[in-house]
TrEMBL record:
Pfam family of the protein (one): GFO_IDH_MocA
Protein name (database record): Predicted dehydrogenase
UniProt keyword Oxidoreductase present: yes
Record Gene3D superfamilies: Dihydrodipicolinate Reductase, domain 2 (3.30.360.10), NAD(P)-binding Rossmann-like Domain (3.40.50.720)
Naturally occurring in which organism (per UniProt): Microlunatus flavus
GO molecular function terms attached to this record: nucleotide binding; oxidoreductase activity
InterPro entries, per the entry: DUF6807, Gfo/Idh/MocA-like_OxRdtase_N, Gfo/Idh/MocA_oxidrdct_glycsds, NAD(P)-bd_dom_sf
Keyword Transferase among record annotations: no
Length: 677
């Protein structure tokens, strides 16, 4: 749609559309009503697809399901206020700019640097502007701190401490809350990028770090105590282009909520700025010359500033370009590995139901120390921090397509039983069909081997099943250590020797693992995962099922799948989770629209075949309703014994195909896998 000129004549009330009428949209509605009473604006339409079907109006105007519909109904408008889910910011702002409107856009502005660049280009093309709703940047203290108006001298250190508390209900309030992506689109929610984003943006602003080019580097150390995809307890360290470090230590898991503070230390004094109250506590000088005082400044409303910009050219306080530095932080968070799970032993849960909330051990003290030293949790050696990061040991390439990485598992915390695994595993077209460390089960890691009970040691991770009690987090977790990867001569696979270790470090099992890959047809490739386990002492392999949990006999080969839509799981004789779960057949297939993340989504089908497992009577373990997972169970209802010095061999052949295959097509693939296996 071509863009048009602004509608209202000079001096007339600005015609305004509000997108998002609930949540923070209510706050905007109150502000708009106040400005309307003063003759500054006229609210002409509201947009909210979540409630448009239940009410024809909102805040006294017609309510529409989408912005295009609203603009078609009311004609050209001057300002669109966007208070929508994060993932919708870019398309809504694009639509508004092309319609000739200026935009007041809630923070964070967008979900990627590419989207930021696209909107900046669109601003130039249309001549319209975007003001971003970092309300704290309207505080009159910000320019005074930036320009040394308090006499602190050259800045030595800047940081922000944010200690908030959020309940389970906060994360359950919407489908995008606590998500890194949703339905294949970036969301990048979390403590750094949303809940306490003002702390980050304000700390950057007081040192004049505004644009993309003002940032030299960003380090992130991300954690989560809640069962969410995104971070809730993190440290971010920004090195500015001028060489100054800005450290932000933030949590939503504090014992009680405190006002977040931006700390500025100069050569002649220091300041603590409460950006939610505009209060600045100052200390300058030393000894007999020391002065301590406080000041509460005023604040300019950002929507009023946008209207003043339209009316008389007043400079925007938070133009879109000035959020480039913050977007560098958001991009670093988005590009980082999944936040590390805080071990349950370091978290205390308080409250009930949706009012439950986690408290991370000593988190407030560690936040303060991180900012005081400019170091991350990992660098400080915080007990619940985890320094390990996964290393790629091997990469599978089929016809020039990178289809899988084999990781050493160093990024897995001890209570999730570290072990090597395959992730990401992709189709030829790039659809990712594995997940690691998902919010619901941190110990689920791509494709690999894991067993819940090996002579009393958990080599699965998480809680241990105790019959009559349920799952209990015990100090019984072991690890699987891998030796060097020996690449096959043809480059189509590798071998590795591994040691399955008990929680005391002793070796329970030696493993010889072979992984191979090759093309099958233009849309399908093959992965072979073979293992020979040799017992050091006598070994009993067990599962919750072997301890009395009906249908819970998982353990052995396991494949954690990413989020799925319209998933179908089937064998030659059964269809659906209930019928396939617990069945003994040579193969199983899973067909779905996979939603691992931006650029990794699409339809795919995976087939797993194992003649050895079928011959041994080992059932398929399937989860679809609770989470997407698929495995072959070694100890379904009874423990499996491997005598000392003897071995257990299993081979699993996998087909990974683009597109949704019919049962007939999946059967044909399974026949190929079994014939060549």
């Amino acid at each position: 749609m071509p863009f048009v000129k602004a509608f209202s004549e000079a001096g007339a009330a600005a015609r305004l559309v509000l997108v998002g009428v609930r949540g923070f949209g209510e706050v905007h509605a109150e502000r708009i009503a106040r400005l309307a009473a003063a003759g500054e604006v006229e609210l002409v339409a509201a947009v909210d697809p979540a409630v448009a079907g239940t009410s024809p109006t909102a805040h006294g105007v017609d309510l529409h399901a989408d912005l295009d519909e609203a603009l078609a109904a009311v004609g050209p408008v001057d300002v669109v206020v966007v208070a929508a889910p994060i993932g919708a910011h870019f398309p809504l702002t694009r639509t508004a700019l092309l319609a000739g409107a200026d935009v007041y856009l809630e923070k964070p502005p967008v979900t990627s640097l590419a989207e930021l660049t696209a909107l900046l280009d669109l601003e130039r093309q249309t001549g319209r502007v975007v003001q971003v709703g970092f309300q704290s940047l309207g505080s009159h203290a910000v320019p005074r701190l930036r320009d040394d108006g308090y006499g602190l001298g050259p800045v030595v250190r800047v940081g922000a401490v944010g200690a908030w508390s959020r309940t389970v209900g906060y994360w359950n309030r919407s489908s995008w809350s606590g998500r890194r992506s949703l339905d294949g689109r970036a969301v990048v929610d979390g403590v750094v990028t949303n809940a306490l984003a003002h702390a980050v943006a304000t700390a950057l602003a007081v040192v004049g770090c505004r644009t993309v080019d003002d940032v030299a580097s960003v380090d992130v150390d991300l954690y989560r105590a809640n069962k969410i995809d995104s971070d809730d307890t993190s440290v971010v360290r920004v090195r500015t282009a001028r060489g100054l470090d800005v450290t932000c230590a933030l949590t939503l898991c504090a014992p009680e909520q405190r006002e977040p503070l931006v700390h500025v230390e100069g050569e002649r004094g220091r300041a603590a700025f409460s950006y939610t109250t505009d209060r600045v506590d100052l200390q300058t000088g030393a000894g007999s010359d020391e002065t301590v005082r406080s000041e509460t400044t005023g604040r300019t409303d950002l929507l009023e500033n946008l209207l003043a910009h339209r009316r008389d050219g007043a400079p925007l306080l938070v133009p879109l370009a000035s959020t480039g530095a913050f977007m560098r932080v958001l991009a670093a968070v988005a590009d980082a590995d999944e936040p590390v799970h805080v071990d349950g032993g370091s978290v205390t849960w308080e409250g009930e139901g949706d009012d439950r909330r986690p408290v991370v051990d000593d988190v407030e003290a560690w936040l303060e120390r991180a900012v005081a030293t400019g170091r991350t949790f990992t660098e400080l050696g915080v007990p619940w921090a985890h320094a390990g990061r996964d290393t790629v040991l091997a990469r599978a390439v089929v016809d020039e397509h990178e289809v899988a990485d084999y990781l050493d598992g160093a990024g897995t915390i001890p209570s999730s039983s570290p072990r090597p695994y395959l992730h990401p595993v992709r189709t030829r077209r790039g659809v990712t069909v594995t997940a690691r460390h998902p919010a619901d089960h941190d110990w689920h890691c791509g494709i690999g081997l894991a067993v819940p009970d090996v002579n009393g040691t958990s080599l699965w991770g998480g809680g241990t099943y105790v019959h009559g009690t349920g799952f209990v987090l015990l100090d019984d977790h072991g690890r699987i250590d891998g030796g060097p990867v020996e690449t096959e001569r043809d480059g189509g696979g590798f071998r590795q020797r591994l040691a399955w270790r008990a929680h005391d470090g002793s070796v329970l099992l030696h493993e010889e693992r072979t992984v191979r890959w090759s093309g099958l047809d233009p849309r399908t490739w093959r992965l072979t995962f073979a293992s020979v386990l040799r017992a050091e002492p006598d070994v009993l392999l067990g599962s919750p099922g072997s301890k009395g949990r009906v249908g819970g006999g998982y353990g052995g080969f396991f494949w954690r799948l990413p989020a799925c839509r319209d998933a179908e799981v089937f064998t030659a004789d059964a269809h659906g989770e209930d019928d396939v779960h617990g069945s003994v057949t040579p193969w199983v297939a899973w067909s779905s629209d996979f939603s691992a993340g931006p650029g990794e989504t699409g339809p795919a089908t995976v087939v797993v075949a194992s003649a050895q497992a079928a011959a041994a009577g080992e059932p398929w373990f399937v989860r679809l309703r609770d989470y997407p997972g698929l495995g072959s169970a070694l100890a379904w209802t009874e423990p499996l014994r491997i005598p000392a010095g003897q071995s257990l061999a299993r081979r699993y052949d996998l087909a990974i195909a683009d597109g949704r295959l019919t049962p007939v097509e999946a059967t044909a693939l399974a026949d190929v896998l079994l014939a060549e296996g």
